[in-house]
Amino acid sequence: MEGLTKIDDLGKPRVVIVGGGFGGLELAKALAGAPVQVVLIDKQNYHAFQPLLYQVATAGLDEGDIVAPFRKILSTQENFYFRLAEVMAVNTADQVVETSIGRVRYDYLVLATGATSNYFGDAEMAKNSIAIKSVEDALELRNTVLSNFEQALQLGDREQLNSLLDFVIVGGGPTGVELAGALSELRKHVFPKDYRELDFKEMDIHLVQSGPVLLKGMSANASQRALESLQQFGVQVWLNARVKSYDGYTVTLSTGQQLITRTLIWAAGVTGAPISGLRADCLLPGNRYGVDDFNRVLGYDHIFAIGDIAAMRSPDYPEGHPMVAQPALQQGRLLGQNLSRLLAGQPLQPFRYHDKGAMATIGRNHAVADIKLFGREYHLQGFLAWVAWSIVHVVSLIGFRNRLMVLLSWTWSYFSFDKGLRYIIGKTKASLVEADVDGKAIV
Amino acid sequence: MEGLTKIDDLGKPRVVIVGGGFGGLELAKALAGAPVQVVLIDKQNYHAFQPLLYQVATAGLDEGDIVAPFRKILSTQENFYFRLAEVMAVNTADQVVETSIGRVRYDYLVLATGATSNYFGDAEMAKNSIAIKSVEDALELRNTVLSNFEQALQLGDREQLNSLLDFVIVGGGPTGVELAGALSELRKHVFPKDYRELDFKEMDIHLVQSGPVLLKGMSANASQRALESLQQFGVQVWLNARVKSYDGYTVTLSTGQQLITRTLIWAAGVTGAPISGLRADCLLPGNRYGVDDFNRVLGYDHIFAIGDIAAMRSPDYPEGHPMVAQPALQQGRLLGQNLSRLLAGQPLQPFRYHDKGAMATIGRNHAVADIKLFGREYHLQGFLAWVAWSIVHVVSLIGFRNRLMVLLSWTWSYFSFDKGLRYIIGKTKASLVEADVDGKAIV
Predict the structure, then answer these.
(1) Do A283 and A402 belong to one domain?
(2) To 10 degrees, what angle do helices A174-185 and A220-232 make?
(3) Rg of chain A over all Cα atoms, to the nearest angstrom
(4) Which positions fall inside the FAD/NAD(P)-binding domain (chains A, B) (predicted)?
(5) A96 to chain B: nearest residue by CA?
(6) pLDDT reported for residue A430
(7) pLDDT tens column, A132-187
(8) A320 and A243 both lie in a single domain
(9) N or C: which end of chain B has fewer CB within 10 A?
(10) Chain B residue closest in CA terms to A83
(11) In a shared domain, residues A240 and A371
(12) How many distinct structural domains can be found in chain B?
């Protein structure tokens, strides 16, 4: 029997896309003119611009400025349908996706589920740390940082105080580096005005990186410069160190060093977010689906995977492409064209990754960028890299409104040295601070 | 014993303000130069601009644009201290406020706790309806409205469908009128593009008002015009009707009429939010503290009340002043001056309310305004009133950033006919929609 609002069966093949990140959204757009019905399923009703989540977490941007509702982005695309749902499993025999709102039939299925934090099996770490993979994560981190300072005002014990004022960031990739830089800016320009009663010499920012360099994968020049800038900003960088354990209070590093913090931010690694129902042998290490040059999941004709969840292994990329925005965008775009070719009986075009380089910002006027243009690589740093980073990120945002708002927020922050969004709304990481009778005596 | 971060005792009298709404914040500012220590206690770390909450609830504004952190607003005021805490009770004998973070001594106490929704003792209504008194309320309403439409896509039963698409607003004051207008704009300009599969003729907006007119307290002209505009926008207005009961699905009116909705928005009345510890006889009907002409709570020398929580009865205002922003602002300002006078041994100045009039917006180019200037009253309506309303609200916001952002958002919305913030982040009112096997067959 039919629902009143059943997805119209247009007699066209249906492409079901699971996940509306960079890859899934780009694919949906690329299918605009194709003779297919496009059904995007996501557990959020919006696309989040992940590279700027750290700015939401540090009160620099409003979450509304970096998200865009799918229905709004694609409101004029006639063959586009959206469903807010969680996907539980794929039934390949019936060509059906099992979701929280029922079964959705597909002719072509594209998995674009992205990646999730990798805690390497450490359940205690997963429970006690804060990730920064989603908008909700970023808001929770912002709320937690601000709540920490509010609570710190009541404490009489120095170690307890430091457990709230100190932050440990695990992972020296772009997210970890950018977050450490943003926290150091808050420490320098913003928090001392807000919390005049606290001594911000007590606030330590630790960045823990398992390897010998920050920003692994970028040029040696960029890595070195990022390290120097962070150290100049007073961030304590621990290279060649791993976190062995964290109980919500004490961080023990592989070097034996112990750090005290109630706020450990986990930016140390990601793993694919696969869906049950596919054969186990198509899942490669890192929980990514092995795909051929056309992003077809190995062993399946009608199932594709793009972006972080796909590992397209090649001599240049033996473990698949880096888990960043560009491969996802490029694969999404090409798969859109290839699906049209497939339906028209034309030969498919294999994927070739165009590496445009990488960039990371460390703070005000400080960034590093490796830019690949016309076969050459340019290394930028300092103010120029920072301007390049800002332009690339504003332009990459979705929608005129978001671009304008982010540009204005940044301009305002730049000249005022302020981050205006320091409000606590929504979830805060449950505080473990015990009643401190001495400190409570604020009478 | 002292905490590390004890509030400095400056040897100056301490004024403790409970609540940072319009009144409490204005008072804190007015005490900037006074020889006192100002301690503001609030359970949020920000001031929320309540008159625009309805726009947050209808995806027109970002919550970040209408809130301002107290610490930021008053970061340059040297005698200002903020504490994030809930106040449980006042101990008048010890001159101490009992809070969630301990006891806070006061020399002068000012209660500015505002008002809360009045459900007239109907616990079922309190549980099943959504209020719109706080930012969290507004976000929950926005999330719920959007979730309703997402869920409606799965339903096969017409009554079930209507229970999600229809909205009942109880209360014909400014909040109810403005919300009804905003929902009707979404229905006309925004939702049909987002949800092409739904028939928006099915979406009904009901506004239930107990009395014979909308916007009671404004001019007859304004009331009539608001009614006509809403009806023109397709809002079903029920005058002289009260809600007798609501079980989360069926609304029964005093007229016998029944309406079906899963979303009832309660904007029907407010009651003071008093604190325990004061003598029962100073609490007047409506849960407001009776105060003298200097906002001193009857029977106490060192305890004051301002804004919604205060009822200063006079021949012109036998039940106290209207529970809106202006009396709170004016009382806060005057009390700041009077506390300085008190400390200087000068006579206090009694409060005189300067009624500037009232305004309400119904939608694009439609508003009503009764403006009192130089002893005369002017009635504006339509486009002119809408421009006046917009200017007054932008100017009243706190901080340059918020003013700029709201102005831009409105300008953008005006020309694009769009409301951009249609994302679901955070709490949603628990849905009661049963699994609908027919509707779920979206295969």
Answers:
(1) no
(2) 20
(3) 23
(4) 14-332
(5) B443
(6) 61
(7) 999 999 999 999 999 999 999 988 788 999 999 999 999 999 999 999 999 999 99
(8) no
(9) N
(10) B150
(11) yes
(12) 2
